[in-house]
Amino acid sequence: MKKHIICDSCGESGVIQKHVTRSFGKGDHVVVIDNIPMLVCPQCGENYFTASTLQEIERLRMHKEGLVVQSMVPMISYV
Ligand SMILES: [Zn+2]
Known about the structure:
Shape: elongated
Bound molecules: zinc ion
Distance between the termini: 19 Å
Number of helices: 2
Structural class: alpha+beta
Number of strands: 4
C-alpha cells in the first residue's frame, strides 16, 4: 500500500521513501546504520527522517553492543 506523504518543507505531496546508510557519532563512538528509511521530496529536494525513525536510530545506538556486525566501522542494520 502506497500512502501519500506531504513534504514538511514545501507542502507538496509525492515525497518518496528511500533506504540509506548513515554514520552517527564521532571518533570511537561512530556507528553506521544500514537501511534507514529516509523521506525525500522530489519537489524541493528536502530529505529527512521521521520522528519515529529518529527514535529508532537513538534506540539502536544505545543498544549497539549487541547489534554490531564486525567490520571496519561498527554497523547496525536498521531492520
Ligand atoms: Zn518539498
